[in-house]
């Protein structure tokens, strides 16, 4: 069965290779679409950064490049990016299969199904083809979950450090990770040691970047502060952009802090509440971040919806079947570029159309996230009362 | 009283005759194709000598040099000042090369560059802001809108015109070259009036008396320029100021407008139709332009020259570069004046206070002296139709027999996020090289690129391109457009944003000095705009969705899970329900008491 999973993933790899070979414009089309690119993660700004770097122009002098210096150096060395991205994405598929095997859930899909789900997932394929750096980010998070599940904490802490270095929001995952460390070791010292290791690895990465960019701290501003301060106002599928375009200057900084706190607010509660299932907590956190973060893309959404396959155990108590919610998301994702096109190119609609559909997407994601939470809570209740999951008991919360 | 007046007047007349001020003026006419006429006004003024680093409290005598401008220059340590006001489109295919090799013509709107002396970039920038604000008041132009987001520091073009400055004198500080442009500025009468006020004749005498707003800005193309340079010998320095006004007038149109200020369609009986093409009562292909013309300065400018500028060091001179086979020039004034031939040109001088008018009689306006073709043709356009991204495309043609080196200078506002790696070169619309190709460097010899910083600095791009003889090249560059904040959009945001013209300079292949300079037209860029009526709706709707998500997840995480039956029974037991029950009972009791009574 596992062998067949690998052969399916290999097929997926070749699909990811074949499409750009047959249709080379696909990358620039996806890269220019609002769904797959933001100024923070787009492939064209990565190319610009690599170009400036190879021509000895400081990439951090301007405001186009928002990538950490080490990533830029890495990409300036890489050739055959089609292969690289296809390989990275197939590796995500492989890790998903591994995570699926290692989870302790009573019901789960077979490796073959998980592999098929990822290999032929249109969202995953399109994300890979857009060549956005969010693919690397997704990989780092998946790797983190994989290591954590295997209790390889040192590896997961280093992965998390790299992940944090890549994208600002990933440091939120330190909280569930620390809970995992505590769960398995039951010693506070281990937690403190882990935090120290984490801080040390992040500092090492930042310091080497500082040296690499000729002792300049501007990369910090471009990589992290521009996300926190929402410096690049460009339409995306999140909630921030229209709010900060329209908000009066006077309130701007207040709402910036509110939005940033909002994105962090459930990190600790989720980890505390689901101490026993931190993979689920992290997954819900990723889902919450998809609409609470500053620059979400479909590639970010892809991480959440690909991991949905791991939680078969909670499908039973869902109000909406995962198939239905998946279809809903796909529907909204097809509407989004249409309304964007109507606004930007045809000029027959204005920003409100796109914004409204973006709101619907956020509501839909809220529903999916809370639906899974409720399902999880019900399942926990049944387990705690030693009831059969199929018993008809109507639950409520007070 | 009267006895005194006469000697004073006599003395004044003597003064006029003997004292001469460092001021010169001349006017030149040049017929162009399609009945256009180039009128070129030139004024030169020198200031008195001064020392560069003199204490602030010292008083200065500016002589004919404007006292409006002098203190501004001294206050801001400006060593060179170049200001351009232009409007209209210069069509090099009809007008030939730009007057004075384009060195005194600006791009559409206002353009300003200056050489400032200062200790460091910050202090110089402060002086620059002071300078633009002062000039803004002086010239009634929106120069005060110039800030760091539109200021560039050119590296290879706009270099100092008077290098004397660096040689003769040891400067205390460094020199900085700053440049900015306002492409959206409409050039108008209110800019002309202060322009004339800088002249010692103040537009009352000499050739400047011809310049009235409504005639100057009726031209096809107009360019006003002011160039102030500092010249030093030893420790003594003086300012030299040159002012140019170049106008291209469509003569038949100007005459028509004099005849009929409110345009009406030509009546059918006066239409001249092309007999080689079919014509009847409904169809008429009008004949080519009129070829016989007779016009005078009064027709063109509505005024006569009000005498010469008598305080000038040289008498006022009026010249015309005519093909004498079909053109003739007649001076109309009280005393007999006949124009003389000076080299190629027909000229006369004005040395008295009489009114002068010049009458041009033309047998065939098509017969003009051959126009010089410009060494380069260039145009810039925007590509792409979307509001979120697009591209620049610059077409340059070298029509000459020699290879030519050009510098393309672009200053692009920060909200246009350009991607330099998309720079593509196409030669004769056949061969295409992208910037990373090795062949690209054969044509583009150098790139100077200072990327933009949001709200602080524009992108500054200078490309040194070598174009082979008789070759057309196309350079294209892609960009993304950023959205602005609500308050940053100007009124009528959907009109779009003017991108200032690209400046293209042709370099001498040996000395690398600029030999010809031209500007493309401005580009109108539309940015994505939000709905300006939405702030409250957006705040409310976004906040609602966010609180919806927060509320539902918060409830799920914090509340206790129970079965529905248990929930009901607990609800009965809860204190609130009990309280409500007691209140109900009391109310009932009171009601029953009231009923009884």
TrEMBL record, chain A:
Pfam families reported in the protein's UniProt record: PIG-U
UniProt pathway annotation: Glycolipid biosynthesis; glycosylphosphatidylinositol-anchor biosynthesis
Keyword Transmembrane: yes
GO CC terms, sorted: GPI-anchor transamidase complex
Record InterPro entries: PIG-U
Name of this chain's protein: GPI transamidase subunit PIG-U
Subcellular locations according to the entry: Endoplasmic reticulum membrane
Source organism (scientific name): Ogataea haglerorum
Membrane topology (UniProt): Multi-pass membrane protein
Residue stretches spanning the membrane: 81-99, 157-179, 191-212, 219-244, 250-271, 278-295, 323-341, 353-374
Gene Ontology biological process terms, A to Z: attachment of GPI anchor to protein; GPI anchor biosynthetic process
The family this protein is said to belong to: Belongs to the PIGU family.
PANTHER family for the chain: GPI TRANSAMIDASE COMPONENT PIG-U, PHOSPHATIDYLINOSITOL GLYCAN ANCHOR BIOSYNTHESIS CLASS U PROTEIN
TrEMBL record, chain B:
Keyword DNA damage annotated: no
Spans traversing the lipid bilayer: 534-557
Keywords: Membrane, Signal, Transmembrane, Transmembrane helix
InterPro entries noted in UniProt: PIG-T
Pfam families the UniProt entry points to: Gpi16
Keyword Ligase among record annotations: no
Region forming the signal peptide: 1-20
PANTHER family assigned: GPI TRANSAMIDASE COMPONENT PIG-T, GPI TRANSAMIDASE COMPONENT PIG-T-RELATED
Record protein name field: GPI transamidase component GPI16
């Amino acid at each position: 069965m596992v062998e067949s999973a690998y052969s399916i993933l290999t097929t997926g790899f070749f699909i990811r290779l074949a499409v750009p070979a047959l249709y080379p414009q696909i990358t620039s089309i996806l890269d220019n679409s609002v769904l797959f690119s933001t100024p923070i993660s787009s492939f064209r700004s990565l190319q610009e950064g690599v170009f400036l770097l190879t021509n000895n122009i400081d990439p951090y002098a301007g405001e186009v490049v928002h990538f950490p210096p080490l990533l830029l150096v890495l990409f300036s060395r890489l050739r055959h990016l089609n292969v690289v991205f296809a390989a990275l994405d197939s590796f995500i598929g492989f890790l998903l299969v591994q995570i699926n095997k290692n989870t302790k859930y009573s019901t789960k899909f077979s490796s073959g199904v998980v592999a098929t789900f990822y290999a032929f997932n249109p969202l995953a394929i399109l994300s890979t083809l857009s060549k956005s750096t969010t693919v690397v980010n997704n990989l780092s998070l998946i790797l983190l979950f994989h290591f954590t599940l295997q209790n390889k904490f040192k590896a997961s802490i280093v992965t998390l450090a790299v992940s944090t270095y890549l994208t600002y929001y990933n440091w939120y995952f330190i909280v569930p990770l620390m809970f995992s460390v505590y769960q398995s070791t039951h010693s506070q010292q281990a937690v403190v040691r882990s935090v120290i290791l984490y801080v040390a690895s992040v500092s090492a990465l930042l310091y080497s970047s500082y040296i690499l960019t000729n002792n300049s701290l501007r990369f910090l501003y471009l990589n992290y502060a521009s996300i926190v301060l929402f410096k690049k106002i460009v339409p995306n599928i999140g909630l921030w952009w229209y709010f900060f375009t329209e908000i009066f200057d006077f309130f701007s900084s207040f709402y910036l802090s509110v939005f940033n706190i909002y994105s962090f607010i459930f990190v600790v509660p989720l980890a505390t509440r689901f101490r026993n299932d931190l993979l689920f907590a992290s997954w819900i956190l990723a889902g919450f971040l998809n609409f609470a973060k500053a620059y979400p893309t479909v590639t970010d959404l892809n991480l959440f919806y690909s991991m949905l396959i791991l939680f078969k155990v909670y499908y039973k108590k869902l109000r909406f079947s995962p198939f239905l919610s998946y279809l809903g998301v796909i529907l909204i994702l097809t509407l989004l570029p249409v309304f964007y096109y109507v606004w930007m190119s045809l000029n027959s609609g204005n920003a409100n159309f796109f914004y409204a559909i973006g709101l619907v997407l956020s509501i839909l994601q809220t529903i999916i996230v809370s639906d899974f939470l409720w399902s999880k809570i019900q399942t926990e209740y049944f387990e705690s009362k030693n009831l059969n999951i199929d018993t008809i008991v109507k639950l409520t919360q007070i | 009283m009267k006895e005194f007046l006469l000697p004073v007047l006599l003395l004044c007349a003597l003064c006029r005759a003997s004292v001469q001020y460092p001021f010169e003026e001349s006017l030149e006419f040049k017929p162009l194709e399609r009945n256009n006429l180039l009128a070129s006004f030139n004024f030169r003024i020198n200031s008195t000598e001064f020392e560069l680093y003199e204490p602030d409290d010292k008083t200065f005598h500016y002589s004919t040099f404007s006292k409006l401008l002098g203190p501004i220059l001294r206050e801001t340590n400006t060593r060179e000042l170049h200001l351009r006001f232009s409007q209209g489109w210069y069509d090099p295919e009809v007008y030939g090369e730009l007057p004075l090799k384009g060195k005194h013509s600006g791009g559409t709107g206002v353009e300003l560059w200056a050489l400032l002396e200062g200790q460091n970039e910050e202090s110089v920038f402060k002086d620059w802001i002071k300078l633009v604000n002062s000039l803004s008041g002086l010239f009634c132009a929106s120069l005060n809108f110039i800030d760091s987001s539109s200021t560039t520091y050119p590296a290879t073009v706009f270099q100092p015109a008077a290098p004397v400055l660096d040689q003769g004198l040891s400067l205390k500080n460094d020199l900085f070259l700053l440049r900015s442009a306002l492409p959206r500025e409409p050039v108008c009468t209110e800019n002309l009036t202060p322009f004339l006020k800088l002249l010692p004749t103040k537009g009352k005498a000499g050739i400047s008396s011809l310049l009235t707003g409504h005639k100057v800005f009726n031209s096809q193309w107009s360019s006003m320029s002011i160039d102030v340079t500092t010249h030093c010998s030893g420790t003594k320095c003086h300012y030299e100021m040159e002012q140019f006004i170049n106008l291209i007038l469509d003569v038949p149109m100007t005459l028509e407008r004099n005849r009929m200020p409110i345009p009406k369609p030509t009546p059918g009986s006066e239409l001249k139709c092309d007999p080689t093409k079919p014509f009847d009562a409904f169809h008429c292909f009008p004949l080519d332009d009129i070829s016989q013309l007779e016009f005078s300065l009064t027709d063109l400018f509505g005024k006569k020259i009000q005498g010469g500028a008598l305080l000038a060091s040289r008498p006022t001179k009026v010249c015309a570069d005519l093909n004498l086979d079909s053109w003739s020039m007649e001076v109309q004034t009280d005393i007999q004046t006949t124009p003389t031939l000076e080299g190629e040109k027909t000229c006369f001088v004005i040395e008295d206070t009489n009114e002068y008018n010049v009458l041009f009689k033309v047998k065939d306006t098509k017969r003009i002296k051959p126009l010089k073709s410009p060494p380069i043709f260039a145009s810039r356009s925007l590509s792409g139709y979307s509001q979120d991204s697009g591209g620049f495309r610059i077409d340059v043609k070298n029509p000459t027999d020699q290879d030519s080196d050009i510098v393309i200078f672009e200053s692009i506002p920060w909200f246009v996020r350009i991607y330099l790696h998309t720079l593509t070169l196409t030669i004769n619309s056949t061969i295409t090289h992208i910037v990373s190709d090795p062949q690209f460097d054969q044509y583009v010899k150098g790139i100077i690129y200072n990327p933009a910083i949001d709200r602080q600095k524009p992108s500054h791009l200078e490309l040194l391109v070598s174009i082979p003889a008789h070759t057309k090249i196309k350079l294209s560059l892609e960009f993304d457009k950023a959205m602005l904040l609500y308050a940053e959009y100007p009124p009528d945001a959907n009109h779009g944003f003017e991108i200032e013209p690209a400046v293209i300079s042709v370099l001498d292949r040996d000395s690398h000095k600029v030999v010809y300079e031209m500007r493309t037209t401005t580009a109108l860029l539309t940015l994505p705009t939000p709905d300006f009526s939405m702030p409250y709706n957006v705040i409310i709707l976004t906040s609602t969705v966010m609180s919806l998500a927060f509320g539902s997840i918060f409830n799920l995480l914090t509340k206790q899970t129970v079965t529905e039956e248990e929930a009901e029974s607990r609800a009965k037991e809860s204190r609130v329900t009990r309280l409500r029950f007691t209140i109900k009972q009391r109310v009932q009791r009171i009601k029953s008491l009231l009923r009884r009574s």
